[in-house]
Write a sequence for this structure.
C-alpha cells in the first residue's frame, strides 16, 4: 500500500470497469470504506488491537483464580503451575513454525482465523475440564490454547506491518501492546469478582462455579476470533481495491544459521530466559503470596499483582523512545535487571508495602523489553533475524515451562521465602550474563553499547552511499 499514488488507491472492487469509471465511482466512496483513507485504517486498527485481547485475557486466568483453581480442583501448587507449563510446551516448537505456516501454508488471513480458533477452542476445553472436574482436561485445554496464542501474536504484528508500514507503525505497535496489557489487567481484576458472583448465585463454590467462570472468560476469545474474521475480510477487500500483496511475516527460519550465532547473541538468550522466568511464574503465583505475607484481601492482592502489566502499557512506548534516543542498550538492560533484583529482594526480605516493589518491577520489566530485544538486530545480519528471534522465543518458552514446574514444586515443599530466593538467583544469573555481554561486546568493538549518535555515524559509514 505504501508508495502508491492517490489516484492508484481510488479504484473500486469492479475489476472490469475502466480506469476513468473506477475513479469516478471511488470519489463517491465514503472515507470509512476507502482502504487508502486514514479513517478506514483506524477501523482496521481497532480490530487489530482486539485480535489479541482474548488471548492475553485468558492466558492469566489461572493467576487470577489461583486459590479457586487449587481448592476446587484439589491440586497443589506444583499441579497448578502445570497450567502454565502446558501453555509453553507447544511454543518451544511453534516459534519456528508459526511464521512459516502463516507465510507458506495458510496465508495471513486463514492462518489468523485458525490460530484464533485454537485459542478459543483451547479455552473452551480448559473451562470444560473445570466443569467436569477433570484437571487433566484443563491441562489439555491449555496445550491447545498455547498452540494458537504465540502464533496469533505473530499474525497481529504481520497485519500491523501490512497496513501501517511507512506510516504510523511505531504508534500501532505501542497501541497493540497497550491493548494486550489491558487484557491481562482486566483479567487480573475481574475474574475473581466473576467467580464470587457466580458462587453467590449458585449458593456454593466448586469446580462447576470455576468452569462457568472460565466459560464466561472464553467469550473474550470468541470476540477476538470474530475480529480475526473481520480482519480477513477487510484485508482481502483492500487487496482487491488497492492491488496489493497479502502480508508476509518476514520471518525466514533456517536452523543451520544457529551455528553462526555470535557469543553476544547467546548471552542475550541467557539474559532473556533468566530474566523472564523470574517475572511470569512469579505473577502466576503472586496473588496468594500477597494474601499470605501482607495480609491483603483477595481484591487488593489481584490489584497489586496486576500492576506490572498496568505500568508496562504506558511505560513501554515512553521507555522505548528514551532507549532509542540514548542508545547504551547493555547499560539499560543491566539497570533493569538490578532494579528487578531489588524488587524481588524487597518482597522476599522485607515487609515494606509491596506496591513499591511491584511498581519498580513494572518499570524495570518494560525497560528490559525495550532495550534487550532490539539488540538481536545489532549482532546478526538481516537474513538471520527470523531464526534468531524464533530461537530466542523458543528458549524463553522452554525456560518458562521448566521453571513453572520448578516454582510450583519449590513452593509446595519450601515455601514462598525459598521461592523468592530462587527467583533472585535467576535474576543474578541474568545480571552476570549482562556483565559478560558488556565485556565481550567491548572486546569485539562495543557496538551493542554505543550511544544513539555513535550508532548513527556507524550506520552512515557502513552505507554504500558513504563511499
Amino acid at each position: 500500500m505504501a508508495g502508491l499514488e492517490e489516484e492508484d488507491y481510488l479504484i473500486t472492487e469492479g475489476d472490469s470497469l475502466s480506469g476513468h469509471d473506477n475513479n469516478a465511482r471511488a470519489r463517491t466512496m465514503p472515507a470509512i470504506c476507502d482502504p487508502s483513507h486514514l479513517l478506514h485504517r483506524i477501523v482496521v486498527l481497532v480490530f487489530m488491537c482486539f485480535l489479541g485481547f482474548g488471548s492475553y485475557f485468558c492466558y492469566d486466568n489461572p493467576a487470577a483464580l489461583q486459590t479457586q483453581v487449587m481448592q476446587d480442583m484439589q491440586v497443589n501448587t506444583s499441579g497448578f503451575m502445570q497450567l502454565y507449563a502446558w501453555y509453553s510446551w507447544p511454543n518451544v516448537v511453534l516459534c519456528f513454525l508459526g511464521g512459516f505456516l502463516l507465510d507458506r501454508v495458510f496465508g495471513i488471513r486463514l492462518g489468523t482465523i485458525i490460530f484464533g480458533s485454537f485459542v478459543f477452542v483451547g479455552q473452551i476445553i480448559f473451562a470444560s475440564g473445570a466443569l467436569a472436574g477433570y484437571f487433566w482436561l484443563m491441562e489439555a485445554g491449555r496445550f491447545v490454547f498455547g498452540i494458537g496464542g504465540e502464533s496469533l501474536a505473530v499474525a497481529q504484528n504481520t497485519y500491523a506491518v501490512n497496513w501501517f508500514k511507512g506510516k504510523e507503525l511505531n504508534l500501532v505497535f505501542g497501541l497493540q501492546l497497550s491493548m494486550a496489557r489491558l487484557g491481562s489487567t482486566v483479567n487480573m481484576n475481574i475474574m475473581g469478582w466473576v467467580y464470587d458472583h457466580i458462587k453467590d448465585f449458585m449458593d456454593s463454590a466448586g469446580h462447576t462455579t470455576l468452569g462457568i467462570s472460565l466459560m464466561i472468560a472464553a467469550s473474550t476469545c470468541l470476540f477476538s476470533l470474530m475480529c480475526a474474521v473481520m480482519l480477513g475480510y477487510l484485508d482481502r477487500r483492500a487487496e482487491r481495491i488497492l492491488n496489493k500483496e497479502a502480508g508476509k511475516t518476514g520471518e525466514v527460519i533456517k536452523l543451520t544459521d544457529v551455528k553462526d550465532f555470535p557469543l553476544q547473541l547467546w548471552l542475550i538468550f541467557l539474559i532473556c530466559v533468566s530474566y523472564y522466568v523470574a517475572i511470569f511464574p512469579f505473577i502466576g503465583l503472586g496473588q496468594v503470596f500477597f494474601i499470605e505475607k501482607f495480609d491483603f484481601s483477595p481484591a487488593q492482592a489481584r490489584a497489586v499483582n496486576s500492576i506490572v502489566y498496568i505500568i508496562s502499557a504506558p511505560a513501554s512506548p515512553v521507555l522505548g523512545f528514551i532507549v532509542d534516543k540514548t542508545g547504551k542498550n547493555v547499560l539499560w538492560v543491566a539497570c533493569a535487571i538490578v532494579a528487578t533484583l531489588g524488587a524481588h529482594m524487597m518482597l522476599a526480605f522485607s515487609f515494606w508495602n509491596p506496591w513499591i516493589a511491584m511498581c519498580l518491577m513494572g518499570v524495570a520489566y518494560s525497560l528490559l523489553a525495550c532495550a534487550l530485544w532490539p539488540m538481536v538486530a545489532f549482532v546478526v545480519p538481516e537474513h538471520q533475524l527470523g531464526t534468531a528471534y524464533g530461537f530466542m522465543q523458543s528458549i524463553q518458552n522452554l525456560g518458562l515451562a521448566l521453571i513453572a514446574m520448578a516454582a510450583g514444586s519449590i513452593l509446595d515443599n519450601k515455601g514462598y521465602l525459598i521461592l523468592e530466593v530462587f527467583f533472585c538467583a535467576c535474576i543474578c544469573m541474568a545480571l552476570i550474563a549482562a556483565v559478560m555481554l558488556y565485556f565481550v561486546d567491548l572486546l569485539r568493538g562495543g557496538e551493542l553499547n554505543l550511544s544513539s549518535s555513535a550508532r548513527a555515524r556507524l550506520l552512515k559509514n557502513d552505507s554504500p552511499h558513504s563511499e
Q: What stands out?
A: The chain has a mean pLDDT of 85. The CA atoms of residues 122 and 147 lie 9 Å apart. The two ends are 32 Å apart (CA to CA). The domain at 25-248 is CATH 1.20.1250.20 (Growth Hormone; Chain: A;).
